[in-house]
Amino acid sequence: MKKRILCGISAAMTAICLYGQSVTKSGSISPYSQFGLGILADQTQVTERGMAGTGIALRSGIEVNTLNPASYSAVDSLTMLFDAGLSGQITNFKEAGNSVNARSASFDYVAGLFRLRKHLGVSFGLLPFSNVNYDYDGSIRLDNTMGIVDLNSSGTGSFRQVYVGVGWNPVSHLSVGVNAAYLWGSYSRTVSSIATATINSLTKDYHTTINSYNLTFGLQWQQPLGKKDVLTLGATLGVGHKLGADATCDILNINTATLVSDTTSFTVPNAFELPFTYGVGMAWNHRHKLTLAADFTLQKWGSLSFPHYDDNGSRYELQKGLLSDRTRLSLGVDYVPNFMSVSNYLHRVHYRAGVAYTTPYIKVNGQDGPKQFCLSAGLGLPLQNKWGDRSVLNISAQWERTSASQLITENAFRLSIGLTFNERWFAKWRVE
Predict the structure, then answer these.
(1) How far apart are CA 82 and CA 123, in angstroms?
(2) What is the pLDDT of residues 253-292, one digit of tens each?
(3) What is the DSSP letter of 394?
(4) Using CA atoms, how far apart are residues 137 and 191, in angstroms rounded to an integer?
(5) What is the DSSP-derived secondary structure letter of residue 429?
(6) Mind listing the pLDDT tens digit for each residue in 61-96?
(7) Which of 159, 93, 129, 108 is nearest to 370 (CA)?
(8) How many whole angstroms separate alpha carbon 75 and alpha carbon 177?
(9) Which of 48, 105, 248, 371 has the largest CB neighbor count within 10 A?
(10) Cα Rg for the chain, rounded, in angstroms?
(11) What is the distance, to the nearest Å, from the Cα of residue 378 to the centroid of all Cα atoms in its chain?
(12) Which whole-number Å values give the CA distances from 299 to 37, 183, 305, 361, 400, in the listed order?
């Protein structure tokens, strides 16, 4: 038994190492990641992605649901879960009649779940938080004398979190939980002008490194409705706080004629914050076959300040009004014809679908950033063997449209694959 547990932990640590290597080299590509802390990551598992990221009230005990730590208490005494997922994405960008495609891939997450004692489940793992990844060329007209200046904008970086969570079922129907995470990462964003005979070369480099924490609390109430139906209500709270990280802006000016360079540095202390985040969800299950779920989340980014360089005043300082409150509404459905079926494999497959609508947390040139619309579908394919193991291969496909008036439109197709390794590790064998 000890050897199996150690093998499982070793596999999880290997996945964590692979995650740390891959996430900095890939992830979503978007020019919108130059704003705020980047593109906020989908912190769901592939199971919930098939339902458009819906999961605050989901509670099964055979899947890791990091959206609500209260769900961890549903795991039974015989189960040890490991879940890992990866995804690939193709994105089409359109602006003013121009179109270009980009591809990306990433190892997304790894998570584990087991029962520590009666009514108490423990989860651990590594999740993404946000991603910065873009590189494009543009131009700007200064005036009639200096004409047009060519610019290059690029940025890389990511923020990740390793977490430990507990879910406790203190009384009948009620479960509570908490995720405690260590949040870390960095980004570098650069804007460079191309020198001409009359204009110096100018480069602005914005960068930061964050090492902080992230706390999320969860609650679930499960209420039977007769013998065939169960209603689950869920709620989450993410704690907002300062991240204790400085923002730095380095400006390099190179004289075209003399090639003499001059560097000016600005630092904004304690420049970044996490917003308070609120979430509510509801899920209805009928006869262990059909699950209908809905989520609503609100992130209070609009009340936060963000570092900004003022070209007119040559100042780098915190400024309000650069971010907006982010809301997300999602609906999802999960249907399995008969999970106990022996003769028909397709009756044990989970069929999932979902839809979601998200408002932006960033502003672009003073106007609200792009809104996002998502459609998803997914499958949960059981991988059973002669010992009756319950592992599942989860597959989800998502189409996301990100658009706003007079801004770049993104159409992304994402395919995610996750393996939920679910074995009866703690069963006691009886020899007669």
Answers:
(1) 10
(2) 876 656 666 788 999 999 999 999 999 999 999 999 999 9
(3) E
(4) 10
(5) P
(6) 889 999 999 999 999 887 889 999 999 999 999 988
(7) 93
(8) 13
(9) 48
(10) 24
(11) 18
(12) 14, 17, 14, 8, 20
